[in-house]
Amino acid sequence: MSRFAPLIAALCLAPTLALAQMASAPFDGRLKKIHETKTISVAYRTDAIPFSFEDQDKKPSGYTVDLCRSIIGVIERQIGVTPLQVKWVPVTLQNRFSTIANGQADMECGASTVTLGRMSQVSFSTLTFVDGTALLVRNSTAGNSLLDLANKKIGVIAGSSNEKALAEAMKTKVVNATVVPVKTREDGLAELEAGTIDAFASDRVLLVGLAAKAKDPKSLALLGDPISYEPYAIALPRGDWAMQQAVNSALAQIYGSSTLGELFTRWFGALGRPPAVLEIMYALGRLPQ
Q: Is the peptide bond prior to 50 cis by the omega test (within 30 degrees of 0)?
């Protein structure tokens, strides 16, 4: 895991360099609008358990949603408006970034991987989680690695970072398998249970939540180690330094408080302590004020 430390360090510290270029005005861009309207619009995924989803009462829930609630609490103190009215905006895998870019929401709290390509449309906060692309299979599947899926069918959401990670892993390991595009994780689960695909690729923690929704969760299992690592962050308006500073400042305070441990235990307690790569990410996110 230590070989990933330089990558995580670079991703965590990139926003720090941007802070030095921020304008001095405290309420520029979206932050100014939030201050004037006393309202903040937050996009959230309805299907990304356990990061962002709707509970039985159809209310936003999950690790990233709770993290964003804590961020909003800090922003309230930063801009002197308490309380802020929160407008929750449900989004999909396909429209989550355009919703931010078009001004329909001020930040996106889901399970979004930071990529250079996505930075042409939105900006990102410091990192909020590190997950990895993994493979969910039926227990009857022989083997324990991507190599064992040669000549089989692997489902993945079209256009996702997982699709790219899967293609790169197959090329690197010289695995000849059929990639089957699906629209949603639920579609992938249904096809896996029906036997029309042999594996489904997505973020590891999301697959754990997905498997729990299966007709027979014990019939499914994760296949070996992750085939890639996915750094998550909060999507923000591109080039809005004041908003980015406000969110990163809030994250730094949260990462240095007991709130972080409470959030992790609430949503990932069954996984034990945070892995080393995640501990590094949290430590680098505690930017000095």
A: yes
Q: What is the pTM of this model?
A: 0.79
- Regarding whether 20 and 47 lie in a shared domain, the answer is yes
Is residue 254 assigned to a domain?
Answer: yes
Whether 189 and 82 share a structural domain: no
Beta bridge partners of 202: 134
How would you write the pLDDT of the chain (289 residues) with one tens digit per residue?
A: 445 555 555 555 554 444 444 334 457 899 999 999 999 999 999 989 899 999 999 999 999 999 999 999 999 999 999 999 999 999 998 999 999 999 999 999 999 999 999 999 999 999 999 988 999 999 999 888 999 999 999 999 998 999 999 999 999 999 999 999 999 999 999 999 999 999 999 998 889 889 988 999 999 999 887 898 889 999 999 999 999 999 999 999 999 999 999 999 999 887 778 878 889 999 999 988 7
For 68-88, b/e burial (b = at least 16 CB within 10 A) is: bebbbbbbbebbebeebeeeb
Is residue 289 included in any domain, yes or no?
no
